[in-house]
Amino acid sequence: MLTIELLSQNQILFVIICSLFSLMVGSFLNVVIYRLPVIMENAWRAEIKQFQQDESNISEPATTEPSEAFNLLVPRSRCPQCNNAINALQNIPVISYVVLGGKCKNCKAPISSRYPLVEAITAILSGVVAWYFFAEPLTAIAAIGLTWCLIALTGIDYDTYLLPDSITLPLLWAGLLINYFGLITSFESAFWGAIAGYMVLWTIFWAFKLLTGKEGMGYGDFKLLAALGAWLGWQLLPVIIILSSLVGAVIGIGLIVFSGHEKQKPIPFGPYLAIAGWIALVWGEQINQAYFRYMGL
């Protein structure tokens, strides 16, 4: 009780605790970003194999050795080059990367800078949310959870062009649940935000497809915007859509100019929605108010 009271009275301490905890969560998010698509692919392959067996009425002989478990918890993380297990001291967020000089301790193969970057971004963004929502601790905790999910979805979509239902759908229901208690917006706003978020991109998708014969985005994008609508309310959907377009334009041009990204190669839209959604979470109301003042409304 003393700790809770201390945290509720000390904003800086609250931010530090949230940031340090989120730093460790960032390490786990690296695991989610890499493993969840692999888990999904394994599940799809198993379903296809089972379907083929059912269709051909062929029963597979039982194997004597079960395959090694692979999920978000096991097996332990290993170096992709030498397969050496990474112990706890080598897995301290950011610090281990710096101490090891960005190389595997065993084989000296370079470690991607993406791992400490995800950890640091998770800590920083969570710290910002903790600072902004300090006066409302339950809202702060919920918003930090949303931040973690958006970071995971950004990494997965960037790598695989997938936004897993196992994250987007629980995120949608969680948004409706927290706003049933009015933590961020009213339940009515959240309800219509979820519906409008899905329908807006669904309409754009089909209009684009009818006009061009091409699919401009995936259904995962619809579900992500629906989830953001459930969390933030329908009033912030225009902000999210405009910001995601601006962020997408800036990053897309940057990738083409500085990294030689091919113009014809598709760029996932999910990361831009996630970035815009996080900005709207923290500063959406101020952006809306500034716009209304500018328009004289």
Radius of gyration: 22 Å
Residue fraction in strands: under 5%
Distinct helical segment count: 10
Record field, number of beta strands: 0
What structural class do the secondary elements suggest? mainly alpha
Helix % is 55-70%
How far do the termini sit from each other? 46 Å
Order of helices and strands: HHHHHHHHHH
Largest sheet entry: none
Low-confidence stretches: none
Mean pLDDT: 87
Overall 3D shape? globular
Report what the structure shows.
It is a single chain. The chain has about 300 residues and is mainly α. It is globular. It contains 10 helices and no strands. Helix 9 crosses helix 10.
Q: What keywords describe this structure?
A:
297 residues; mainly alpha
Summarize the structure.
The protein has 297 residues and is mostly helical. The chain has helices spanning 2-9, 11-56, 95-99, 114-132, 137-160, 165-180, 187-212, 219-232, 237-258, 270-295. The N and C termini lie far apart (46 Å).
Topology:
Blueprint: H1 2-9, H2 11-56, H3 95-99, H4 114-132, H5 137-160, H6 165-180, H7 187-212, H8 219-232, H9 237-258, H10 270-295
Helix pairs in contact: 2-4, 2-5, 4-5, 5-6, 5-10, 6-7, 6-8, 7-8, 8-10, 9-10
